[in-house]
Structure formats: C-alpha cells, structure tokens
Amino acid sequence: MDRTQKAALASAGIGLVVLALKFGAYWLTGSLALYSDALESIINVAAAAAAFIALRVAAKPADGDHPYGHHKAEYFSAVIEGVLVVGAAILILREAYFGFFNQAPLEAPLLGLVVNALATVVNAGWAWALLRWGRQWRSPALKADGQHVLADVWTSAGILVGVALVIATGWLVLDPLIAALVALNVLWSGWAMIRDSVSSLMDASARPETLAEIKQIIATQSEGAHEAHDVRTRQVGSVVFIDFHLVVPGSMSVKESHAICDRIEQALKARIAGAMVTIHVEPEEKAKQKGVPVLLVM
C-alpha cells in the first residue's frame, strides 16, 4: 500500500469521526442546518472509500489489456466524488426548502455549536493535508478528496454562522436560509471537480508552464539534431506522457541518433516527475522549420 492509498484510507477513518461528531451536534440541537451538515459528511466517507479503491486500481502495473497503465482510474474517482458533492448539495437544498415551512426552536444550541466546530477544525486540517499531498504527489484522487473535504468545511462554517445568528436573533428562518446558501457553494464545488476530471479523461495536455519547461529541455539537450517538432503531452494522474519528432542529419547513424534520444529522455525524466517519453527520429528532409530549435550550450 503506497502513501496515496494510506492517505485515502485515513481520510475514510477521519470522515467517520467527523460524521459522528456532526450527527451528535444535530442530536443535541435539532437544527436543520446541522442535520444538513451531517448529511454532507456521509458523502465524504463514501467519497474517501471511492478514492481508496481508485488509487488501488491506478497503482496496478501495465498489462496486456492496459499497456499504458491504469492511471486514469483516479479521474473516474474524482468524477464520482464530484457527482456525490452535487448530490449532497441537492439534499441540503431539499432539507432547507422543507425547513422554511417547519421552523422549530433549537435545543442546547451552544453545546451543539461547540461539537460541530470541533468537527470543522478536524476537517479543515485534513483538507489542507490532502490538498498539499495531492499537489506534491500529482494525485487527482487525493486532490478531489481534499476539495470535497474543503467544501464540507465551508458548509460547516456557513452553518455555524447561521446557527449562531439564530441563537442571537431568534429568527428561526435563518437556519434553513443559511443551509440553502451554503448548498449553492457546495454545488459549484462539485461541478468544478467534475469539469476538471472530465477534461483530464479527455487527455488534456500538461500545464503551460510544464510544456514550456519540456520544450526548453528538448532544445538544450538535442545537440547534434536539427530540430524537434510536433511536441505533444498529456497528463494522466502522476504521469506525463511526452512524444515528439526529432529531426537529425540524414547521414547520422542509428547509434548516434539513439544516443541523442537517450540524453533527451534522461534529462526529461530528471526534471519532469513521472515523465514517459516517446521520440520518433526523422531525416533532415522532414524538418518543418517551425518546431523546437536546437540550442547550442557552450
């Protein structure tokens, strides 16, 4: 079990603890807003479990049926999590709607606020850790899980404000109103997760700054060649697939051109984490004069 899988498994465990605290807060107060917060946390646990399964699948080595590996399993998990976040927002909106017509006073509101605040602090710390690890380890599943938990933090913060206002003003209508407003924010977060993951499933290219670095490496490591063109990239989880055409003199031997390719590949793998490089060697008459020029390093 690698570090990303351990993080996803720990996320499910922390989600269960937070879920218990939030349902405890609802049980103490009877607040519709706190009940909606607890509903959203059920989705957190399910999403963490989905992320763990996806990471297990993504870690499998390439095989005959999947020669490029199983990395895209992480994006399927991220899409599922986005759908679950949207579902949670709809559930909260539903409860808020009925809450407008069934307003009831809160019981033990201060103690409920303290318990819910504790759950929110735990969630905030865990969301920060997941997002940090997701960026460092280039794990879409962990990033999506972190975004999901962070959405839950915003939900809880808004609901805590709403319940505090109910206590301070006695306006019971604020309870479902705040829940509805926060649900809209959660809905947007879920849509963003789905949009980004679907883009990656469609083989979106690496980020512009990564592509610029790749071209710079090719330009400075291609001494002996004429140019590189048709540079293409795609980001799949923690792996960056890179392929391009390298134009060399027609008189150059296979051994010499292969040595240039090895030099470029080693440099790319040293600078671009998870790089998988494919180079197609072509003779000089295939030059396009609009590719990546070779820079002579003195």
TrEMBL record:
Keywords per UniProt: Membrane, Transmembrane, Transmembrane helix, Transport
Main localization category: membrane
Segments passing through the bilayer: 7-29, 41-59, 75-93, 113-131, 151-171, 177-194
Entry superkingdom: Bacteria
Domain Cation efflux protein cytoplasmic: 207-284
Domain Cation efflux protein transmembrane: 10-202
Localisation: Membrane
Membrane topology per record: Multi-pass membrane protein
PANTHER family: MITOCHONDRIAL METAL TRANSPORTER 1-RELATED (PTHR43840:SF15)
Family in the record: Belongs to the cation diffusion facilitator (CDF) transporter (TC 2.A.4) family.
Entry protein name: Cation diffusion facilitator family transporter
Biological source species: Labrys monachus
